[in-house]
């Protein structure tokens, strides 16, 4: 899927001395605290990480608690949806005014009435209801269907909530598209999805910016945090 | 659902508007004010204001108003995409400040479904929605007085289940919502000085959430929060409070509760009216009831083992080292009693593991061994083999320790060997309670008699001189009667009682007198603990075979005749002639003697060597 990408990052992870016995574990744990929440410096949500600790030297931080900064090379799997990307999700709840889908089982997406193609007509039935296409009554979206939709807006504030749209072409119920939409069908059969931008390097420059103005904030706000991750200062 | 809709239709029909018309109207109003306030048409503004007045959190409603509200809420949930955080701020504010406690069942449904819809729309509403639901965990202030009435109990259950359902729906559509909910619950937790009704209903609702599927996601946090609250309340109950409430009644009433029936002065009043004036104790009491009920329901749904695992971790982190806690630890006791074979055993092993691990800090280890001692002594549901098994572990550890000390030069300061003394004391304490019952099983008896008690107790570290004299005394009495050691060992013990050393090994915190499962003194929740709790007054000792359920005066008279089955009646009479029954019971409790607070009386007491200070007055740094 488009929104998933791998990235390599050079990070400095600050480890509390009490965790010095097992640095790898401490580093992983620290990175794991950022899982599933939107991280500005990654421009996305961290889904998985693989860590290689570079060498056996670490810089000790001046201060009351001598945290030490471990240089780390990390391979990250990120979820970073951008507007106009095509995503796939499972419909969890729908009503006349909206369709709510879940992407990758974790992230929520909402498609509002304005963004649902006019060709879809909502039919109330039992609990829930369904959207039926006026042009082809086999094209149905109901609870549990897998749909393709395009990203309209991404709310990066907390949970990376997506506002989606079913207006662009090649969107709708996936089973229907696979037989009726030539482009999607060929995409599946050739096995090549749109090239995802693999291998974007997250380098220090970007981290540097955030670290400069964030450091002091992090320090004062969360003085008890066991270890904190920050960018290299050099 | 269908029926509801029809009813609404009828209500609104009086004004000649159908449901769908009303829905369109609301949508139109929302749309028309979605612009800069200066540009809004005055008529639209009025309509919006009337919408606001319908959805007003503070208004009292007639039946008609309520029906109108239902329709409006339904219309709003059909139009959530039109609601804008900028331009409909007042409306959102009204929605989020509504209290569902005053509403009818239909209205509640409509409001909650609006909330779940709003939560699913975008991140910006999610926090407010969750906060609104969490705020409704507790009834509004004016209702708290009536909440205990039966009429409200059913309604309360209904409201809780609706709240849980809504939260579940939200977590279905926004899978990451529980993370935020965790935060919000954390921040909305009742504080120490909140009133009791609020606290109880919040915790009740919160634990109800744990039963749900939500429990898998944030159950551990919910439990941890509740346990923290219990502990916090607990440490705020001081022994002074207990004693003042007690007036001149003996503090050992609970231990002597069987005598209570015969003696007026120590009667029901004394036991039942404990903690009359202490707010913290009352709160804790009610919360314990809620928590025990929760554990019970876990047991019924087969979730106890998972729950117990979580509880163990929480206990380790936030209760074990809090020596000032007196009652909060009983949640573990109760959880164990619900499932003695698995949880009960697991808890004993868990504690002894902590004790034996070298990596643990010494305070944790000492607390753990005190817990083992107290737990095995008091838990009636623990079988004699488990007791012997754990005893074996403790004794083996002591033997290793003694061997180690033989090899290196011994430093005599008890404080350096506090863990050793604590474990010796725990072993003796357990045996005081359990020796007699172990003797009934020949195989266990054989195992017990193979343990090298003589070696440990006569070791140059002299545990008998350092441990609490009352326990040592009682232990020696029973051991003698049971012939646990041979005669030569006995003679060395004769002068072992009472020395200056005996108060020193526990250090500042008096860990030497830490017996976490002492009689439970909270009256409401007592019913959960009592059936499984071993009171000293009911313990059968090796030297005395009858149940000591008798008046003081009778003891001396009855003792010789009654102890036919006793193992060594000669010793029994000798010892018993000195102390009265109460003394021997008192010794098994660490509940402080009044003399601590009335120093003058201390001297007049007849040779009672109760500890000067029982509980640490400050909890150790954690």
TrEMBL record, chain A:
Main subcellular location: nucleus
One GO term describing the cellular component: RNA polymerase I complex
Gene3D superfamilies named among the record's database cross-references: 2.40.50.1060, RNA polymerase Rpb7-like, N-terminal domain
Superkingdom assignment: Eukaryota
Matches recorded under InterPro entries: RNA_pol_Rpb7-like_N_sf, RPA43_OB, Rpb7-like
Region listing for Disordered, in residue ranges: 187-234
Classification via Pfam families: RPA43_OB
Residue ranges constituting the RPA43 OB domain according to the UniProt record: 81-194
Coiled-coil regions, chain positions: none
Transcription in keyword set: yes
Biased composition (Basic residues): 223-234
Keyword Metal-binding listed: no
Function of the molecule: DNA-dependent RNA polymerase which catalyzes the transcription of DNA into RNA using the four ribonucleoside triphosphates as substrates.
Name assigned to this protein: DNA-directed RNA polymerase subunit
From TrEMBL, chain B:
Entry's Gene Ontology cellular component terms: nucleus
Gene Ontology process terms (BP): transcription initiation at RNA polymerase I promoter
Superkingdom classification of source: Eukaryota
Any Pfam family: RRN3
An MF annotation (GO) of this entry: RNA polymerase I general transcription initiation factor activity
Family membership: Belongs to the RRN3 family.
Name of the protein described by the UniProt record: RNA polymerase I-specific transcription initiation factor RRN3
Organism the protein comes from: Oryza glaberrima
């Amino acid at each position: 899927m488009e929104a998933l990408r791998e990235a390599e990052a050079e990070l400095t992870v600050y480890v509390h001395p009490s965790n010095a016995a097992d640095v790898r574990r401490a580093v992983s744990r620290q990175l794991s605290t950022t899982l599933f929440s939107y991280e500005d410096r990654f421009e996305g949500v961290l889904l998985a990480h693989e860590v290689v600790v570079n060498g056996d030297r670490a810089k000790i931080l001046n201060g009351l608690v001598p945290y030490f900064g471990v240089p780390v090379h990390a391979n990250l799997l990120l979820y970073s949806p951008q507007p106009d990307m095509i995503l796939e999700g499972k419909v969890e709840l729908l009503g006349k005014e909206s369709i709510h889908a879940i992407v990758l089982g974790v992230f929520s997406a909402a498609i509002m009435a304005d963004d649902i193609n006019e060709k879809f007509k909502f039919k109330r039935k039992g609990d829930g209801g369904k959207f039926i296409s006026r042009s082809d009554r086999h094209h149905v979206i109901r609870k549990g269907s897998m749909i393709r939709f395009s990203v309209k807006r991404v709310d990066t504030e907390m949970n990376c909530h997506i506002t989606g749209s079913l207006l662009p072409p090649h969107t709708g119920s996936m089973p229907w598209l696979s037989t009726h939409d030539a482009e999607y069908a060929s995409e599946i059969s050739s096995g090549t999805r749109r090239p995802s931008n693999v291998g974007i390097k997250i380098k220090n420059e970007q981290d540097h910016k955030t670290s400069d103005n964030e450091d002091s904030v992090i320090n004062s706000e969360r003085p008890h945090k066991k270890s904190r991750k920050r960018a290299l200062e050099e | 659902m269908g029926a509801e809709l029809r009813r609404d239709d009828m209500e609104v029909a009086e004004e000649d508007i159908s449901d769908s018309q009303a829905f369109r109207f609301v949508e139109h109003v929302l749309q028309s004010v979605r612009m800069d306030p200066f540009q809004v048409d005055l008529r639209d503004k009025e309509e919006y204001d009337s919408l606001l007045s319908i959805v007003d959190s503070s208004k009292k409603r007639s039946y008609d108003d309520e029906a109108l509200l239902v329709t409006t809420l339904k219309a709003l949930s059909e139009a959530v995409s039109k609601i804008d955080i900028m331009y409909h701020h007042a409306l959102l504010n009204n929605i989020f400040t509504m209290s569902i406690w005053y509403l009818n069942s239909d209205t509640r449904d409509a409001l909650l479904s609006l909330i779940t819809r709003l939560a699913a729309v975008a991140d910006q509403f999610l926090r407010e929605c969750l906060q609104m639901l969490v705020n409704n965990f507790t009834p509004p202030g004016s209702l708290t007085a009536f909440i205990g009435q039966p009429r409200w109990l059913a309604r309360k259950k209904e409201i809780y289940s609706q709240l849980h359902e809504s939260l579940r729906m939200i977590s279905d559509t926004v899978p990451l919502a529980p993370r935020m909910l965790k935060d919000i619950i954390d921040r909305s937790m009742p504080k120490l000085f909140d009133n009791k009704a609020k606290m109880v209903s919040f915790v009740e609702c919160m634990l109800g959430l744990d039963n749900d599927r939500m429990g898998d996601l944030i159950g551990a946090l919910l439990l941890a929060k509740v346990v923290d609250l219990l502990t916090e309340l607990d440490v705020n109950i001081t022994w002074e409070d207990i004693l003042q409430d007690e007036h001149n009644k003996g503090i050992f009433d609970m231990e002597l509760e069987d005598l209570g029936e015969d003696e007026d002065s120590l009667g029901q009043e004394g036991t039942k009216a404990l903690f009359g004036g202490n707010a913290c104790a009352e709160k804790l009491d009610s919360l314990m009831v809620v928590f025990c009920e929760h554990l019970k329901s876990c047991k019924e749904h087969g979730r106890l083992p998972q729950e117990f695992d979580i509880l163990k971790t929480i206990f380790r982190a936030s209760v074990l080292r809090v020596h000032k806690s007196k009652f909060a630890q009983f949640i573990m006791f109760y959880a164990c009693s619900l499932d003695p074979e698995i949880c009960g055993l697991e808890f004993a092993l868990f504690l002894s593991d902590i004790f034996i691990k070298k990596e643990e800090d010494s305070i944790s280890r000492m607390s753990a061994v005190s817990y083992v001692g107290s737990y095995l002594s008091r838990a009636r549901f623990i079988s004699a083999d488990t007791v012997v098994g754990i005893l074996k572990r403790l004794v083996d550890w002591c033997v290793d320790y003694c061997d180690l000390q033989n090899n290196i030069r011994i430093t005599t300061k008890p404080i350096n060997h506090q863990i050793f003394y604590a474990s010796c004391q725990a072993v003796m304490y357990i045996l005081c309670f359990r020796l007699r019952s172990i003797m009934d099983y020949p195989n266990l008896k054989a195992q017990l008699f193979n343990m090298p008690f003589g070696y440990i107790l006569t070791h140059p570290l002299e545990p008998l001189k350092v441990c609490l004299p009352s326990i040592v005394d009682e232990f020696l009495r029973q051991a003698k009667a049971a012939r646990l050691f041979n005669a030569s060992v006995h003679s060395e013990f004769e002068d072992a009682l009472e020395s200056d050393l005996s108060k020193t090994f526990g250090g500042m915190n008096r860990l030497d007198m830490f017996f976490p499962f002492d009689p439970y003194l909270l009256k409401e929740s007592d019913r959960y603990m009592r059936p499984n709790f071993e009171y000293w007054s009911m313990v059968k000792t090796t030297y005395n075979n009858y149940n000591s359920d008798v008046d003081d005066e009778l003891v001396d008279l009855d003792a010789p005749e009654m102890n036919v089955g006793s193992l060594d009646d000669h010793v029994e009479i000798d010892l018993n002639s000195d102390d009265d029954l109460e003394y021997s019971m008192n010794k098994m409790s660490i509940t402080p003697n009044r003399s601590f607070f009335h120093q003058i009386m201390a001297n007049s007491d007849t040779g009672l060597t109760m500890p000067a200070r029982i509980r640490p007055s400050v909890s150790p740094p954690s």
